[in-house]
Prior knowledge:
alpha/beta; 2 domains; two-stranded parallel sheet
Amino acid sequence: MSGLVDLDDIAYDGNADLLYDLASQTVAHFKSYLRDEEDVKRILRVYQREIARLIYAQMQQHYWEEKVDYEVKVYKGFSELKPSAYTQIASDSMLDYRQAPVNKSNMARYLFTGFSRCLYSVEKFNSDSERKLAVILEREAERWFKPRKGQFQMVYKWGVDQLEYQPDFVAETADTIYMLEPKAKNEMNDPQVIAKRDVAVTWCKNASDYAATYGGKPWKYLLIPHDAIAENMSLDGLADRFTARAS
């Protein structure tokens, strides 16, 4: 293939050998058309980050992984709630979550309060469907919250990147813990949504397997189209229709 390095026939068991080979190929690439060795050193020094990014992108295109069994290890049984900080327009007041704002097209500007079962005193919603889901959870869950960044250590592969994923809601009932992801109907089959779904379903399976060892509650992941959420629905009804399974 064209590029800084040739990865078509490289297969190493040791990462160090691979990195040395790639570094040697990179230097040879610039020496092939730059006669002055000082010019080669200057380019490698000045553009080292961009060169590393290009090589990494090539490596990702050649990345493959054999299907293997993974050993799941639980290092701690709980994690503290992440701190929450929101900004709000000075002229806006906090709204009761049971009442939809007049302007629903800009939901993210509003702060909602009045919760009794949410683990945070205030929340923001990206859509009115999320607000409606909060109404359901306030009525039917023992406790719920919207996870902040870093709350769950779930990472999914997207292109050359490994990205963090946090579900929109987590709720606990008498017999189940749910991760819930409301999503626009036209995004339900989006490849990135599917990638997030698959990693969350796997996470929930591992969490359920571990919980079973001490009589804990199973975890389920719900991927719910926005237009299917109504305030008079039950959480069990949503679970019956929208519990997700991995590809």
